[in-house]
Amino acid sequence: MTRAYNFCAGPAALPDEVLEQAQAELLNWHGRGVSIMEMSHRSADYMEVAAQAEQDLRDLLAIPANYKVLFMQGGAKQQFSTVPLNLLGQARVADYIDTGIWSKDALQEGKRYADVKVAASAEPFNYHRVPRQDELRLSQDAAYVHYCANETIGGLEFDYVPETEAPLVCDMSSNILSRPIDVSRFGVIYAGAQKNVGPAGICIVIVREDLLERALPITPATMTYQTVAKNDSMFNTPPTFSWYLSGLVFQWLKRQGGLTAIAAQNERKAAKLYQAIDTSRLYANPVASANRSIMNVPFTLADTALEKTFLQEAEANGLLNLKGHRSVGGMRASIYNAVPEQAVDALVAFMADFESRYYPG
Questions:
Q1: I need a labelling partner for 155 at 20 to 30 A (CA). Which of 63, 234, 284, 326 fits?
Q2: Residues acting as catalytic residues
Q3: Which top-level group of life is the source organism from (predicted)?
Q4: Known binder of ligand: residue 152?
């Protein structure tokens, strides 16, 4: 069977090697006679799978020893509530940086628990550039500062890590593992798995140990970082198959050469696609060059009447899920780690051919 090139923003492409390994192991995991999905999460075999996944993630991100790694349910959206519930403590103020739909959603949810202050917003720039460090207005009494490193929908990515006195909380759902990061600069990192980690159903949370004592009394036990940490992410039955598959992705990333190697590949893919957009008459991307996402590339067509034809022909050529988010329209190519460079080459070639036929100079 020929695999199509999948540019979906999430649930997103998984490496072929990972899918093939999971397929081979599906009915009989390591000769045990059962599937990994049928195995107790507290069995010695599965505990080893879970521990290896955590260690591989720690290795990839060079996570310091004073950080807990949690594998939680509910996705990144549940973290919009989980973060304030766990970090507010005796404080009532939290700072949020607004750079698009996901950071705005987090901000709105935060208002249910905290006196939210908007430290900066990309709205004056039509969400086409990130507020600079000197444009941040941070509260002296903030319990934490929250931002989204990469806005999946708008294709807007921070080109720096904000400097803050309060613990820095980052939603990295769209760009975690796309390049090396310095985890020690953050209080909490969280990321839904279904973009660059694994299948939907699990959320990675990396939290500094000194922040585990701040949870509000109303925080449900299943959402309390300290409780989850004390129980090795098994306070309740975890999504075992998603955890297992995420672990296979971590091993795959190691085989690619780690995050330095994957970052170089991601930079090449993004550069090819942005060049194709910038040198055309038909396609456009409005995001400031410094803040263009290397994971999510939205673009518009000068003649919007061509959009339906573009999508139909793209799909016929095995280029799937290029329709932009319903809130903004246009097109979007998500080029996560598992999207091969050949997929971007094929997309660029199709875009050039489509323009020559429907929008010649």
A1: 63
A2: 102, 171, 195
A3: Bacteria
A4: yes
